[in-house]
Fold this protein.
Amino acid sequence: MIAAVAIGAGHDGQADLIVTLRFDNGRTSHVTLDTDAGLRLMRNCKAKDISELVGHSWHGILEGMTCSI
Amino acid sequence: MFDLIIKGGRVVDGSGRAGYAADVAIDGDAIVALGALGTNARTVVDAAGRVVAPGFIDPHTHFDVQVLWDGAARPAIEHGITSIVPGNCSLSLAPLKAADRRALVGMFQQIEELPPAAFTEAFEWSWERFGGYVDALKRNLAINVAPLVGHSVIRLWVMGADSQKRSARPDEIAAMQNLLRECLDAGAVGLSTSFVDVDENLRPVPSRFAYRAELDGLAKVLGEYGRMLQVVPEFYATDLTIARIDQLAELSLKYGIPTTFSPLFDSAATPDNVPRTMARVEEQFARGARVWPQVQTRPIDISFSFEHPSLYFARFPSWYRVMRLSRAERIAALEDAATIERMIGETGADGGRAFMGKLVVRGGEGAPDALAGRTLESIADERGEGVAQCLINVSLENDLRVPFLAANVGHQDASRVGPLLAHPLVHVGASDGGAHVTSFATYGDTGFLFSRYVRETHHLSLESAVKKITSDTAQIWGLPRRGLLQKGYAADVVVFDADRIARGAEHATFDMPGRGMRYVRDAIGVDTVVVNGAIAYRNGAYTQSRSGSICT
């Protein structure tokens, strides 16, 4: 699930979403989403701001990335 | 009598050894002597008080198109760069069938942001084969070029539209192998591929449809020539990057080839990314593999405007909601008092000063000249407005097109980036020169290396910094006779002031075909640049020399 979200600087000079994922075994990892993927993720999760992404399934990230990155 | 003597400078020869006093003599395109040489030459360049170094080599550029109409790849040469590697990230201008040009232009524009006129007015597209592209380049070069051939265009040539639909059959892989051989014979320095990039419709570029057998087959051909494989890994996820490092290491060991991947950059939001990546790089080098991570010197900025949706404001619900509206609705919302009140309220009790006061108004087509380069808080104070209110008003007054910049928000921590750049297994590069031209300036990274990490933070000595961007690069890429100031080497030389060399401030210019805009940075502290024995740049001006070559 999504454990935390921050906004960071992307390689292409755009704002990226930096998502922290927590897995069932307790381990965490990061994935960085560019503008298209990040906006798609927020739409899919119906998030009003990035804080509302927390708690959503990481599957939303895969859907967000289908047409980007 | 020599053709040229560079006299009285401190030679930093690219090997890493301490600088020493010597003159440098050049005949034709080669360095022929170093030492106390007098002035018996057709041309003498006074280098007293200056460093004389090998020309810098930029291993990650997208100058493929620009260098056809601007053989100096401006402003690369004035920053001391004498050799560039275009064709990165799976995209090159050849081999390409005439019928596929439109498809490739879309991919290029997604990355490079060049205006359409760059492809239709600035050069005559007369080739299909890689050799034809190389011949076209040779007619106008002031800089040396070591072109990569792109995996995506090789795939497009062999598979057509299916290149963005499916994996390749064995016969198609064999055809790609033969085509790659042809490109390498014609002067390609290696193959580039990407696991990340998309075309203008956000579809994955062709190289991303390749299965492992295809990349293995192409790496086998690279092994026949000992040439480079350049890769854009899934840099947005450390675990995937590490998996690609392992894949590249296996190809490197199996076929005896060098590989390089980019970008690798530091971010406070993902602090374990660089350490974990470098740990795996070190493991693979210890096994004998060559997997060079490319690291850029410049910090990363974030730019945005109200013209297009940006995630920059996604932490504020009202701002994010407005950003997602249609253009007309967005303007209406920004003119609505209740909406503005909510937006400003979300930025804090200080009216947004802490969060956005340091934003800079960028130059370009969308911003009034009087505001370009100024911080938002200075403009707000002058206008007697709150900072967030000022951002909204300035955007509205300029049809939403004003670009703003949050500077130095990634890869900016010198205590982390400095040691990374100095790491012996880090390949300094990833400038992206010639790409993202309307988003940010990809020029001046070499000057920034010296101003920031040599003079300011002392993470690298002058000699080691020069070595990083000259002989190290030449050796990693197998560029013959480049990267050292030694007798017999190509006469690529930069003369600069070690106390001043730096990158200038970013500014907009309209020198693209069709008066297209791009952001650039001018050079500071570079006096003279020599390419293959001819002066290409001196005292702030380019010469008419066309001494560049295909340097593979």
Summary: Helices of chain A lie at 35-44, 59-65. Chain A has a mean pLDDT of 85. Residues 32 and 49 of chain A are 17 Å apart (CA to CA). The interface with chain B takes residues 6-18, 29-36, 38-39, 42, 48-51, 67-69 of chain A (CB under 8 Å).
